[in-house]
Amino acid sequence: MKIDTTTYKEINRPMYIIEEARLRNNLRIISNVAKRADVEIILAFKAYALWKTFPIFREYISSTTASSLSEARLAFDKFGSKAHTFSPAYTDYEIEEIAACSSHLTFNSLTQYERLHETARKQNPEISFGLRINPEYSEIETDIYNPCAPGTRFGVSADKLPKQLPEEIDGFHCHCHCENGSDVFVRTLAHIEEIFAGWFKQIKWINFGGGHLMTRKDYDIELLVNTLREFHNRYPWLKVIMEPGSAFGWQTGPLVAQVVDVVEDKGIKTAILNVSFSCHMPDCLEMPYHPAVRGAQTIEEDIDYSVPYIYRLGANSCLSGDFMSAWQFDHELQIGENIVFEDMNHYTTVKTTMFNGISHPTLAMVRENTNELEILREYSPKDYIERMD
Ligand SMILES: Cc1ncc(COP(=O)(O)O)c(C=O)c1O
């Protein structure tokens, strides 16, 4: 079926849609940065794990980052290369399989390293070990996403790092960005160097984590490339790795939902949809953020429901708070019409739940050039029941 990507009018079921053309555009931008700055940029699965699209990724990048055994297996089995893995809590009962699926294994603490590195090495003699460091500097404003807030459980701060690193530590890993621009990276890098450069002679690689939103329109790519080149000039022996997730899936397509009913209470009109914020767009409630809806204006303050065509959008779950306010449309919403939530692929598609047994949106891709819709995965009640089998 051919799809009109301006309206998605051919679609009448909930569906996450990846537009291949947009995905390739992001991949081109990212692989150009990697080439020009002489760094390796790898995909963070935590943000994007739609493995049926991995053959497209493989045309542009060759590795990925995992944060669990399942993601490490995904790297090995479906992406076709061993992962750069970081978890704050490796366990005795998973470390061997994780090591077997990983090229790089970053430990969150020196105790995790001491406990587990020999087992990991035995399993995979080629593996390279890293240590997560914490520069105690981050410009992330939302606390839930800030790994440098006081009391953090992530990484080793400079005051706790021994002058001589453990012999088998080859690299540093540092993650302290979230949807940031390269100006933030410049300032953060200055802190990292000020605090940790004394150890750089002892390591071979440094991973600057995720949160570098290099595919956003206003991202200053030249500043990033120049900053990384200058870093290379200062420390030519260090291989630089970056592991963004969001940047890959950024604005690659929407979640298309449909209006099922319109109800009203105390003058507030709610269009009830066949999707849920809690189950299918959890970051809207968690972050929180107000997603863009195609053809509608978001209204954040002074919502006046007596103004025509202003609606809450409500979910099909039993959670009272599973709604968001408000959007103004240019017409009265009709049952069956599409509501197109923009930019719903990164994080969303990996975080969904089947709470209430609500039908999970289909995963699909619109092919470049032909605009043909390719179904990646459809769900049925069997999927809900089998999760607890
Ligand atoms: C260790 C680590 N690496 C990479 C990422 C990916 O970040 P983003 O999707 O913001 O680029 C995250 C996100 O939380 C992370 O914790």
From TrEMBL:
Residues 218-344 form the Orn/DAP/Arg decarboxylase 2 C-terminal domain. Transmembrane segments: none annotated. Keywords: Decarboxylase, Lyase, Pyridoxal phosphate, Spermidine biosynthesis. InterPro entries: Ala_racemase/Decarboxylase_C, De-COase2_C, Nsp_de-COase, PLP-binding_barrel. Pfam families: Orn_DAP_Arg_deC. Substrate binds at residue 283. This is Carboxynorspermidine/carboxyspermidine decarboxylase. The keyword Lyase applies. Its EC number is 4.1.1.96. GO terms for biological process: lysine biosynthetic process via diaminopimelate; nor-spermidine biosynthetic process; spermidine biosynthetic process. Belongs to the Orn/Lys/Arg decarboxylase class-II family. NspC subfamily. Its cofactor is pyridoxal 5'-phosphate. It comes from Leyella stercorea. It catalyses: carboxynorspermidine + H(+) = norspermidine + CO2; carboxyspermidine + H(+) = spermidine + CO2. GO terms for molecular function: diaminopimelate decarboxylase activity.
